[in-house]
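User: Predict structure, ligand alpha-D-galactopyranose.
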Amino acid sequence: MSKSAKSLSGGAPADRILSIREKFHQTFKEKPLLVRSPGRVNLIGEHTDYNEGFVLPAAVDKAIYFAIAPGKGRSCAVYAYDLGESHEFSLSGLVKSQKGWPNYLMGVVDELQKAGCSISGFQCVFGGDIPIGAGMSSSAAIEAGLAFALNKIFGLGLDPLTLVKLAQKAENEFVGVRCGIMDQFINVFGRPRSVLKLDCRSLDYEYYPFDRPDLRIVLCDTLVKRELASSEYNVRRQQCESGVNLLAKYAPGLKSLRDVSLELLEAHRPEIDPVVYKRCDYVIRENARVEQACADLRKSDFHSFGQRMFGSHSGLRDDYEVSCRELDVLVEAASEIKGVLGARMMGAGFGGCTINLLEEKAVEEFDKTVARAYRGQFGKDPKFYISTLESGTEIVES
Ligand code: GLA
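Assistant: Predicted complex:
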């Protein structure tokens, strides 16, 4: 199967893909399998996945590309094209690397081996255009993309959901971030022009068309490095768990915030730590917002959908407290522009991007006004990306 370089990933930089393939040829002197593994946006449903709630993500045009082929022994050679760095490791002794990025790859190899899959060494060049630390899930793209690629080149026969779970586990165990399942799931299950509603408890999912020619999804990158993201992320998880543990005393069988109603939370408010209360309150309301947002989509009511995005941002800012001043300024500025339907911070928080839903005809004004507001406050320009919704991880050339 082969697609022309131009059609690879809905307008992604074809020359970068060709350079990755070329680099592989030069270094390893053979023909690789070429895999595209996308970044993601999340329209609504933030910090709900690890609470067994609902999310509404989509795979996007920005992606990581792998050129990969099996090797002979047990040694693996990987080259990060965009960083110009290489790393070698043996299947027999996986040691965490100080460099950071190799851990996402070794984590996947580790999980495959733990799952009893028989793999040999391999050679790989990878790179792409998902901005790092922007909250578009470059890490899940590396993990799920490599899991998918190794499944193919070694004929492991793993089904898509197994790949998702394995990639998530790689991040939980080897990298050490207790992320939920959203990013890896949408990376594998994404569909063009669609968002996916995922029930993170049952893993049931359904697609909603998200394809209005007069609307655009624009990401606005604060360019703030998300230093707090992984430590505070784990803290938020613990706070949610402590809320669940307390409430479970009163409601047998209660396993996660998915099982908690606002009434139950309110009834036990005096016993709950005020910070934990706010976290739980946010999660319960955000789950309801995802359900309501999906009802909006069924009616093609994008105005109402956008209002829920604003509601989500307020909750993330005031109650879940994972926003930052830069994100808030971007959302505030966006909210004042005619033609902007909704805006909110996206992903783990503490930096990264906002996601904005706006009329196509408002895009120019949006870029100008939001950039001016941001420059006025922080003395630098944000970055804008128009996102198109694309397919999940796929082979582009074999
Ligand atoms: C990160 C995690 C996801 C999810 C989001 C917040 O992207 O990887 O699992 O929890 O944060 O919604």
